[in-house]
Amino acid sequence: MWAVSESSVKRWSDSGALACVRTPGGHRRFTMQALLDFQRAGGAGRDDGGADHRGATADATQLDLAVAGRDWSRLQELYYEAAVAGDEAAGAALLERAFQDGISAIESKERILTPVLHLIGERWRRGELNIWEEHLASQVTLAATGHLHRRLPRAPAHGRVALCGCPEGDLHEIALQMVVETLEAEGWRAISLGPNTPLFSFADAVQRFSPQLVCISATIVHDLERLRRDYKHFYRAARHHAARIVIGGAAFADPQVHDIFLHDFRAIGLTDFLEYVRREFPPSDAAT
């Protein structure tokens, strides 16, 4: 994150400038909040390590300039570097800095994270990246968006419930998490069924929770005939409980898949999705 040596981090910790927790074995553990607080306070400038300090300052300046200028290409490059290196702290710091400068969480997700993840996926398919690099990037993104989500202001809870998940065979959970985070920020109780959830389980969950909204995110699907059969049962359950159905993801660009998943709205992106939710479920109509 700061391009400094281990000895620099130890000095900052021993001086009390960088807060840490000591494990029973004597190891230092640093929370994400402690790292971000230290960075905001200009803590890296305390080091007298020369090259370490200059490298950290250069990195911080690049990020500041990219954020201030809304240089989306440069921000994507910086995030890509953090993601494939598995650097969760750097990924979280980038989103945090963007948010501090007025870039909304949804804008960061749509204009920085999503293009980078698509690029990583494409480079993996072409054999230019290893599968472990793709996995690291996914974990960095889940951690970074989760960190930012915990810091966002949230609308008061209004009692509405949404079920969110990916159909059986789809293991892509990042878009799903982004949908859940978007709804929670709007005051919803968003229940994530996770990736790889059979449609009959969606139907059972609808019976259990009586949601007002069901969101299905799909990047890839398998066994269309089974989906066609199981979706009918889910659709009847959703309609019985008057739940709206929203679909989104690359899989629905296929007309065959799109036709199976009868729905109320197909979201093209998070902004599109949020506009639909606010339009169809205005706060004034919420349960008290």
* Shape-level CATH architecture of the largest domain: 3-Layer(aba) Sandwich
Beta-strand residue percentage: 5-15%
**Poorly predicted parts:** 47-55
Biggest sheet layout: 5 strands, parallel
Distance between the termini: 45 Å
The tally of helices reads: 12
- Rg over CA atoms: 22 Å
Structurally, the number of domains stands at 3
Question: What's the mean pLDDT score?
Answer: 89
Read across the widest sheet, the strand sequence of neighbours is 4-3-5-6-7
- Secondary-structure element pattern, one letter each: HEEHHHHHHEHEHEHEHEH
The helix-and-strand class reads alpha/beta
Q: Output the CATH topology of the largest domain.
A: Rossmann fold
